[in-house]
Amino acid sequence: MSPDLEDGLQQRFGKYFSDSMTFSFSHGDGWYRIIESFLQSLVNPVMSAKANLDRVERRFTDKGTDRDFYSPVTVADVDAAKLRLANAMENLPSSFYAKEQFGELSITYNSQINPTVDALIDFAEQMSAVTCEICGNFGKHRNGSWDRTLCNHHAEKLGYMDDMQ
Length: 165
Ligand SMILES: [Zn+2]
Fold this sequence. Notes:
Elements: H1 3-13, E1 20-24, H2 32-61, H3 75-90, E2 95-101, E3 104-110, H4 115-128, E4 140-142, E5 148-150, H5 152-157
Parallel strand pairs: 1-2
Antiparallel strand pairs: 2-3, 4-5
Bound molecules: zinc ion.
Zinc ion binds near residues 132 and 137.
């Protein structure tokens, strides 16, 4: 993946992983959108829990009382919002590692088994199997000395046409 794209992902999402976020791709940027969407989906619960806590705290701390007479914010609401954020953060893996394996995206993470993360990974990996790793267009798995997922154009360009029939 291009260094500038990788830097962008590190800047946006790196802070959500207490340990590390690692990418290891030798070819192209075709899977960039898949990885970006995967990371966004992964951190969305944390971002929305953080926004919720900000909103609750803003209402609670405003002059010590809540302005909304009809639905006052209580200490319990603030605690609940903090708990929601803590839970969302706890569900994030501490590290994230993406590489290419047998022509497809392979994502691993370091944390306890997490069904939600596993489902997102499965989806991202499935998407990579139908997405050209160079340009991001529709692609197919191509067998060769090095298995790859390529669109017709890039398969032809790189001499992977034999298994197209
Ligand atoms: Zn392509």
